[in-house]
Write a structure and sequence with these properties.
The chain is α/β, with parallel strands linked by helices. The chain folds into two domains: 3-172 and 223-251, NAD(P)-binding Rossmann-like Domain (Rossmann fold); 190-221 and 254-325, UDP-galactose 4-epimerase, domain 1. The protein is 40% helix and 19% strand. Strands 3-2-1-4-5-6-11 form a seven-stranded parallel β-sheet, sandwiched between helices. The protein has a three-stranded mixed β-sheet with strand order 12-9-14. A two-stranded parallel sheet has the order 7-10. It is globular.
Length: 327
């Protein structure tokens, strides 16, 4: 059987991808320091509790499990925090990945599937955003991922690595089976925040910016269901086993949902009563981010099938309700 070492596999996207890899017949090994992941999200294979920068621990895991490739999710991913504490993002995301790559090189593992982000593009100069769109990050989080992308290209050229880079747009929703879901502390994402506000008496959902040049004045984002993201990772991993060099794919739907439309969807799903307040836009927030995922569709055969905003909200709502019932 094929084996994948999943760094950050106890986190939100990583854990959903672990489930998809296991369902596709892979042996799954999670490596996570649990600083922002959850032990009970590791359900498909063993957990190695270690940091990606710990070369001895990562090397021992590679020796023990002999992975065919590494799927690399481990990262800090809060834009606001990255602006306030850029040192965390460059040390954990960028320097941590360099340590991981060096350990892989020493151990002869040369295939890496990388969890990147549309934040590497910065403010869009054209829409939809394809993989050839200029990259000009506007925050340290985006820069930390951008630098890793350059590192991967250099490692492929100099050391014979093979890498697939997946640039996510807005990962959303939860496992349709309810086994795992989205948990962040603090929670930065609009959908769980809106649901939490709807489920809490007196809860308020802040819409940051209502004067953008969009159809209703609120920001528009391309929400992609995390289970669809997970399917893309399995397809990319299968292709990576026989690939050379670097390939880059956007993962999105090509359809944008505004924040006010999202609030309306949550309001309908929860039976009404969501209190929406208008707030100033956050510095650097683009008005619209929408992907072109044509390359992933053409080369990976990937088509998102669970990413309607109604289904995303439905699965996220079920997860949050289950956590309220069984905290």
């Amino acid at each position: 059987m094929k084996t994948v070492l999943v760094t950050g596999g106890a986190g939100y996207v990583g854990s959903h991808c672990c489930k998809a890899f296991a369902a596709a017949g892979w042996n799954v090994v999670t490596l996570d320091n649990l600083s922002r992941g959850w032990r009970d999200a590791v359900k498909w294979g063993p957990l190695v509790e270690a940091d990606i920068a710990d070369r001895d621990a990562v090397g021992a895991a590679i020796d023990r499990y002999a992975p065919d490739l590494v799927a690399h999710f481990a990262a800090y991913a809060y834009v606001g925090e990255s602006v306030e504490q850029p040192d965390l993002y460059y040390s954990n995301n960028t320097a941590g990945t360099l340590a991981l790559l060096e350990t892989m090189r020493a151990k002869g593992v040369a295939r890496i599937l990388f969890s990147s982000t549309c934040a590497t593009y910065g403010n869009p100069v054209r829409l939809p955003i394809d993989e050839d769109h200029p990259q000009a990050p506007i925050n340290p989080y985006g820069w930390s991922k951008f630098i890793i992308e350059r590192m991967l290209e250099d490692y492929c050229q100099a050391y014979g690595f093979s890498s697939t880079i997946l640039r996510y747009f807005n990962a959303a929703g939860c496992d349709p089976d309810g086994e795992i879901g989205e948990r962040h502390e603090p929670e930065p994402h609009a959908i769980p925040l809106a649901i939490a506000a709807a489920l809490k008496e007196g809860g308020v959902f802040r819409v940051n910016g209502t004067a953008f040049d969009t159809r209703d004045g609120s920001a528009i984002r391309d929400y992609i269901h995390v289970a669809d993201l997970a399917d893309a990772h399995v397809l990319a991993a299968e292709k990576l086993l026989d690939a050379t060099g670097v390939e880059i794919f956007n993962l999105g739907t090509g359809t944008g949902t505004s924040v006010l439309e999202l609030a309306d969807t949550v309001n309908r799903a929860t039976g009404g009563g969501l209190q929406v307040v208008h707030a100033p836009p956050r510095p650097g927030d683009p008005a619209m981010l929408v992907a072109s995922a044509a390359r992933a569709q053409a080369k990976l055969g990937w088509m998102p099938s669970r990413s309607s905003i109604d289904f995303i909200v439905e699965t996220a709502l079920r997860w949050q309700q289950s956590r309220l019932q069984h905290p």
